[in-house]
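A brief tutorial aside. Many learners find it easier to grasp structure tokens once they have seen a single protein encoded end to end. The record that follows does exactly this for Transcriptional regulator. Read the sequence first, then the structure, and try to relate runs of similar tokens to stretches of the chain.
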Amino acid sequence: MTRKLTDARVLRSRQVLRSAAIELLAKTDRFSIAELLVKGHVTRGTFYRHYNNKADLIDDVNQELIRELTEKTVGKFRVRQVLEVISEQGILYNAVLNDDQDPELMTGLMAALREQRNQLLVDIDDERARMHLIYQWEIIMAGFWACVSLWLRDSMALTYDEILDEFREIWRVTMTRTKKTGLLLFDFES
């Protein structure tokens, strides 16, 4: 019984530290541990019980954000669900995409997304066809992140349905032209 209570406290402390770090990262990555402690209402001992330093905390935050987002992209990149995850941390993603805060987050996220894409394409033997799909996927992803960046900068003025309609409109010609496109790796409906 004590073990479960300890585990719950550990989980809560880590979540408090992550949340405080996310709030601070949305403004600057140059925050001090002292600022983090004040924001999270935790002691220095609590911080060092969980993390070696600020970089360790930021890496943990990034890994958690990447995990949350890539859960929605297993099998297919489910655009609506990804938008929902992004909107939960909209202030941070806005800072990352529009103000170059925490560039390691996007680097790690894109690496994870590319790994998922590569797993989906592993059975394609025709190298030319596989490369064609990879190029298309990269173009779609660039367009997706550009639109998301603008959406966040505009305080998410469009609803999920409206931004999904924008994505569908952008890629409608490609979607109807052929069935073997990089768009097969995306779900613009659910």
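Self-check: The domain at 2-187 is CATH 1.10.357.10 (Tetracycline Repressor; domain 2). If you spotted this yourself, you are ready for the next section.
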